Amino acid sequence: MKKEIISFLESNRDEKYSSFSSKLIKDNLYIVGVRLPVLLDFAKNHIKDIDKILRVEDDNIFEIRMIKLFVISLLKDIETYKKYFDISIEMITNWSLCDSFIMHSKVIKKDREYFFSKARELIESEKEFHKRIGFIILLGFFIDDDYVDKVFEIISSCKTNGYYSEMALAWLISVLYIKYTQKAKEFLLNNKIDKSIIKMSIRKIKDSYRVSETDKKWIKKIEV
Predict the structure, then answer these.
(1) Which of 19, 29, 91, 115 has the largest CB neighbor count within 10 A?
(2) 37-57 average pLDDT score
């Protein structure tokens, strides 16, 4: 299986994309330079080979690790996905692996209570990317009427650990502001989050095309 994956990566390699991605992702993993949709297609075509793929040593190659995560994310059976989820989170060492994996994991919707609890657990972790995974789960699957108050409760006094968890939380807050503006305004005025994260959140809100000029004027008044 490994030979097949390596051959596939080499035949789809893009040197310019490799250089671009290395600067953007900033990880110690080696980036061959294969675009994510191509990796996703490979995973879709090899979903039956999941056990073989997961046994392949990734040799610190970004694309091999992403293929593994994509194959897991494409699983349709919720119990099988849960089985592999904890293995998945230990593979994640950068924002691209994190966000691509979570956003493609559609079966999370099948047991929201389980994954809401899992997100809370990950956010309480001391590990930077565990925290980011938790925030991205909330961002992707729990900003709705059923969970929004619980999301605000979780993040109102949570602590981050590193730039990438901080940016994920800021992103989450900005989307909450877009979708639940009044609740988010109250949150921004009353929270125990580090001021640097509030600054990041405000910057994202101000840059969003989905925020009205009136709400942007309000946000400028509370800049810290």
Answers:
(1) 115
(2) 95
Q: Checking phi first, is residue 15 left (phi over 0); if not, alpha (psi -120 to 50) or beta?
A: alpha
Whole-angstrom distance, CA of residue 8 vs CA of residue 10 = 6
Token pair listed for 46: 């090899």
DSSP-assigned states of every residue in the chain: -HHHHHHHHHHT--HHHHHHHHHHH--SSB-----HHHHHHHHHHTGGGHHHHHHS--TTBHHHHHHHHHHHHT---HHHHHHHHHHHHTT--SHHHHHHHHHT-GGGGGGHHHHHHHHHHHHTSSSHHHHHHHHHHHHHH--STTTHHHHHHHHTS----SHHHHHHHHHHHHHHHHHSHHHHHHHHHS--S-HHHHHHHHHHHHH-TTS-HHHHHHHHHT--
pTM score of the predicted model: 0.93
CA–CA distance, 58 with 29 (Å, rounded to integer): 10
The predicted-structure confidence for 173-197, as pLDDT tens digits, reads as follows 999 999 999 999 999 988 888 888 8
